[in-house]
Fold this sequence. Notes:
The chain has helices at 13-21, 47-51, 81-101, 125-134, 155-165, 169-175, 192-197, 212-225, 258-280, 290-303, 320-337, 341-354, 357-366, 371-383; strands spanning 27-37, 62-63, 70-74, 104-107, 145-151, 181-182, 185-186, 238-240, 246-253, 308-311, 316-319. The chain is α+β, with helices and mostly antiparallel strands. The protein has a single domain (13-383), classed as Creatine Kinase, Chain A, domain 2 (2-Layer Sandwich), CATH 3.30.590. Strand 10 and strand 11 form a beta hairpin. Belongs to the glutamate--cysteine ligase type 2 family. YbdK subfamily. ATP-dependent carboxylate-amine ligase which exhibits weak glutamate--cysteine ligase activity.
Amino acid sequence: MDTGAAGATIIDPELAERAESHDLLTLGVEEEYLLVDAVEPRAVEAVEAVFDHVPPELSDAVQHELTRGQIEVASPPQLELSVLATALRDLRSAVSAAAEQAGARLLAMGAGPAAGPNIRIVDKPRYHRMRERFGDLSPGPGLCGTHVHVSVPDDETGVQILNHLRPWLPIFQAATANSPLFSGRDTGYASWRSLMWERWPTVGPTPYLRSFAEYETLVADLESSGAMLDEGMLYWYARLSARYPTVEIRMGDVMPTTEDAVLLAALARALVATLLHEVRDGKPAPDVPHPLLMAAHWRAAHDGLEGLNIDMATREPRPAWKLMRQLFDYVRPELERHGDLETATVLMGRLRAHGTGAARQRAILSQGGSVSDVVDRFVRLTRGEDPTT
């Protein structure tokens, strides 16, 4: 989960000028990881020891999360997808090495796959206030997600993009499903993290909002209601960043490999860029009922990409992979314009061949593997070994 304590690095002015002059959008990625025992698959309270081994030059990009069994990284904003991929690989590699030096392992998985002791929260005033206000809404070692930041021209335009994003986000959630296991068993869901995350009072699809003023008013109302401590706890599936001029797409599990995360980022940027044209052309956002969106997100959490989801145009169930392909075709012009089409095509093929993280975990179990085998394999994927398998 995101506690609102970290964010993408402030964009370099030269990069921002280059993006504006070519009418391109920057993007950045935040990833949250679990820390597990060096041998067993259970979570461990190792975050402070891990920080002691993080290289000083990366310290600004590595942050605490809610529990002592988690850690978060944030890439700098980028224009080129290849540069983003390198930054994420370097962060994963460095934090994996730091975890191993601290006697733990880094694991890109949405929820704790194995039973273990209770993991305490990090000793920070804000986290203690969250625990006092909301109790134990995040059971186990913690919940780990992926957040993609895409630049937008201004807040008013950003709100209109949020309206247009609403029907597309269930298929993004399906593509990121990477938490079928919890406390040593298969939950029956591709993303059990999604179900646990919905315990928080502000989690859910972004409401349709007529203006940035309405957005601000609703955020203030939610804060005064006590449902969140501050804007950092606005856990809608897409929101305006409280710190940066970006739309933040944030409903997905952390993904097994850098390559998976890069594909998500490329598609997110291309989708925001496509919707930006629709906003500028005055095209109204689709009128999607909130209960139907909730149903589509539930289906995404349950099935991942390996089952069905809801086609928002027809309101009928369709194979999720067909909807994923529909998304890819819809944003193809912006993938090409941003220079991402070739990379995204290759990565889309890999995802189709190997499946979501949930499918990969279940494949190991179906071949006679144990939860420990799943964790061992995903630790290697997190570290960057054999991303194509």
